[in-house]
Give the backbone structure.
Amino acid sequence: MPVTIDQLLERVEKPSRYTGGEMNAVVKPISEAEVSFAFCFPDIYEVAMSNLAIKILYGILNDLPYAVCERCCMPWVDMRKELMDHQIPLFSLESRTPLKDFDIVGFTLQYEMSYTNILDMLHLGGIPIQSAQRSEADPIVCVGGPCAFNLEPLHAFVDAVMIGDGEEQIVEFTNAVRNGRKQGLSRMEILRSLTKIEGVYIPCLYEDAYNEDGTLKSLTPVDETVPAVINKRIQVNMDEAYCPTHPPVPYTQVVFDRIMLEIMRGCTRGCRFCQAGMLYRPVRERSVDKLCEMACESVSNTGYEEISLSSLSSSDYSHITELATRLTSDLKDKRVSLSLPSLRVDKFVQDTLTQTQQVKKSSLTFAPEAGTQRLRDVINKGVTEENLMETLGNAFSNGWSAVKLYFMTGLPTETDEDLAGIADLAQKSAGAYYAVPKGQRVKGLRITCSASVFVPKPFTPFQWCAQDRPEEVQRKQQMVRELFRPLKSARFNYHDSAISRIEACFAVGDRRLSKVLYRAWELGCVLDGWNEYFRYDLWLQAFADCGLNVDFYAHRVRSKDEVLPWDHINAYIDKSFLWREYEKAMRAETTRDCREGCNGCGLQKVKGVCSVCG
Amino acid sequence: MMAVFEKGETLRYIGHLDLMRTVQRALRRSNLPVKYSNGFNPHIRLSFAAPLSVGVVGRRELMEVPVEEGVTEKQFVEAFNRVSPECLQIVMARSISDEFPTLMSLVAGSRYTIRLMASPEADMAAEAFDRFMALDHYVATRRTKSGENPCDIRPFIKEGNIAKTADGYEIKLETVTFANGALKPSLWFECLCTFAGCDKPHHIIYRDAILAQPENGPLMPMEEYPHA
């Protein structure tokens, strides 16, 4: 007798990852839908359900009368094995439909180290992994999200890409597939019809060529009907954008188990390592009225006990104090707590909060990113030591005693002096704590400094930069670790240099990496984002088997006129602007926040989109 | 307010704390005038009669939710069910006074149904059932936080019987609770299979009722417990 899904569930550690049925989960009869969309997240349920994109797009698609959207997540090791052992195809949470039976299978790309999971989910779901091997009956596999801006390492597995904000284009896309299917168009005809949608990129309609030195020569359309450049989509008015106020509410605790109120999209700071800060330009705020309305609706629909403000830099929201004040008073009766961005724990907000509710004294988080002012200028991180110490002093006298500081090692131009600055900053933070009189501070100071490894990302001024070699990364990490040894109450954590190295390859890699990815998956690489499953040896073998060099991708400085694998994507950020920023970085010159004046990133050329430059 | 609710099949893998949070969120959605705890992190006051083991379906589970005066039983049931998923619905509610004992203090036993899907293992387990019930003692190993403890499970079983059904077998079990704890039906079932010398057949466990026992009275479903 064949084993049923229910029987598999009894054998796995957390069956609730696969059972769905949450409050606000949408169950529409899938057989009656004109078009079905499987929204796939290439990581496990707890991570997937913490993602804002899935809440927005799931809601938008299910509001369409003709469409059904169901969710599917990467199964954990135990469930994955059960599915393979019993040859049960990976299924959606809502109706347990195998992935292969959907019209569209869409993945959101948030992190390069989840790429093998995409291959694995396609395979488990009964869909040919290689785009070229899919038949007329197979779903159209599409992707979106920040990593889609350099899709090339995945090009062999993906039929269609959506670049930029998804709210409008996912509807146009889904509708086009629906119409194409209705008219009996072939798979290729449908894909070609999708190129007419602004923001949609069809990888198989482009060809790559290389120079003798291995660098990309060109990536060009196969014929003149295919657009040479794909423009990203921008949701111009956030007050008119879809509000995800009734997302599914998980039964078990997920990573972000609360209402995430997206107060704005984009960021004006212009940190030079930050991909999101460039890709999500321009900054677009929601109004306070709209946000209060969204918050109340969300609480009534979900019953969550906590709201956090979501954006790239919430403390920069123009009306943050007004928003905090109004939200706290609106939510008082239902005892819903509000978590505020760390940087604005100033006196005024403090007073407002203590009047109405108790602020959770969980740990505070800051990201100075670099240990010295010089290096912070290089990366254009507009935080000074003075800022930080003032904020910390405020926080320590207001009852906080734990603080987390985030850094990066291996930033361009970094010296040992900059690294020593990390320990120095930890020590000064402790100083700020002891400067508060004994009776006024809370006991148990904890300073946790975490350092990730710099990874060059497309569409940033550092896209031309090389990552430090693993030996150098390790030397630096050990050096900082030694400097932390004498510091009581301060801890230093750091990322695995090997994972960051592979991440760098896939962040800035080209089409040839599709082969490496496939080979790595074949060798057994999966769930690479989970340290315990990351197999560096297998990744190196995959590169070697494909005759490609990790150094070429991760540790090479690119020249100004090198053709980059993402040059055909228009994120409305001029390459010349990025180069200008790169040169300024090398001179440790800062660039002002765009709110203080337009820096000419390229968006000023698009009329009526950027509210800052007009 | 005392409420009898169903913890359906979809929810059977949800642990006690997750269920607690799920009910609190449903109560917040319902807009019912619930009461909050004091302290730094106010939460909705709520208590369950007896936690249900993960994997077991609850047919008549019990919770107590203090509400402001004036809320009728009907209002409570309707307001909750409107905002709660299908697998977590209230069957009935009963207004109880502040003097009513805490539900947890009343627990005296439970009734379970174990459904076995037809298979050779199920036949073996069924065949051994009467002999297993006839034993005076059966020492099982209980895994607890403090390690593995040997424990005689037989005294926990008050009654039990088995019947053949269209798709397998159905075992009915009535257990009693002692000061040192209750018996997990899954442990009992494991012991039956070990005794029968078979692998565990595919099965589902249901808790049909949580029992209370008034002074000098019989065991009865707790929702019927008399109180002035």
